[in-house]
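Sorry to interrupt, but I need a hand with the structure work. Can you supply me with one protein entry, sequence and fold together? No commentary is needed, just the two lines. Leave the record below and I will have a look.
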Amino acid sequence: MPDFTYLIVGGGMTADAAAQAIHAADPAGSIGMISAEVHPPYDRPPLSKALWKGEPEDKIWRNTAATGATMHLGWRITAVDPRGHSVTDDRGTVYRFKKLLLATGGAPRRLPLDTDQIISFRTLDDYRRLRALASQNVRFAVMGGGFIGSEVAAALRMQGRDVTMLVPETGLGARVFPADLSRFLADYYRDKGVTMRTGEGMAGLDRRAGSCVVRTTTGGELTAEVVVAGLGIRPAVELAEQAGLRVDNGIVVDASCRTSHADIYAAGDVANFENPALRTRVRVEHEDNANTMGRSAGLNMAGRPTPYHHLPFFYSDLFELGYEAVGEVDARLETVADWKQQYREGVVYYLKDGRVRGVLLWNTWGQVDHARRLIADPGPFRPSDLKGRLPA
């Protein structure tokens, strides 16, 4: 029976960050890592960004081997026994641990048709499949106008492919961006050659004559040889639920990344944590949170107290446009836009009850820490107080 001081379930960025921190804090402690993916940990953001712009694939790999971790790749954990301090994989192997980290991430929401012509874009293998298809003269349909859908559509179009986006909302990123910016972004994609079908959702999906046919909520059809689903993820909480851990929009953890069991921790996409600056619990599915929370979890597991009070940021590249965003960027909040050049460079503030809850830095760089300090400031702020506030 394999026996580890520290056992990590998951093999993504969070898992690697935790392993690196554990190794630094307790070099003598044994580390095990069990991942359903067949690849060792790698950086995920380049899959929809830099790799499409020419960055070599070998740049994505993280040096997890330097931690001395024993990696069991392509194996899936099916049960956690908190009382027995053990987990069991899908081959029946039982692993013992002193401290366990659940870095299980999330599973992509999938479309209701089983065919290799549909790609639920999330992993390196998904990228490799899509990149190979992008070298062929086929039609691509991208479902959803959120974070991944927007990036993948831009990436495919930059390869000169025929791309149609089916977006239920009236613009791109409608849940995050103010309505006018969301509509501008849809028009910007049209100018780049993407066929934008906004205000149309998917009502059904079939195969016909070697193609996928999407029936839309407006009674129309969209035909493509390849469909990419950019529909977000569901946090992978099944193991936590089976183990009797507290789950509520992810695995609930305290400031030490500890779950409701003293020797089991959770971090990354799957973890629901309290953020002091926002004064609420959040679950964040982005790189900064994966790296920073994974490191904090690893240090805490190794006996080096490191409260996780970090306010993560996220970023995206959309053709020549790009942004960084901090805090609660929710289009339902009051927004104040401060444009240097309308829709091309500026800052959007998100307010609630006189406090800044989030900041969108649109083609405005080097301001993330200033935005964090603004969000932590209790205010109150009036819209006029924010004009010219950033860049600082």
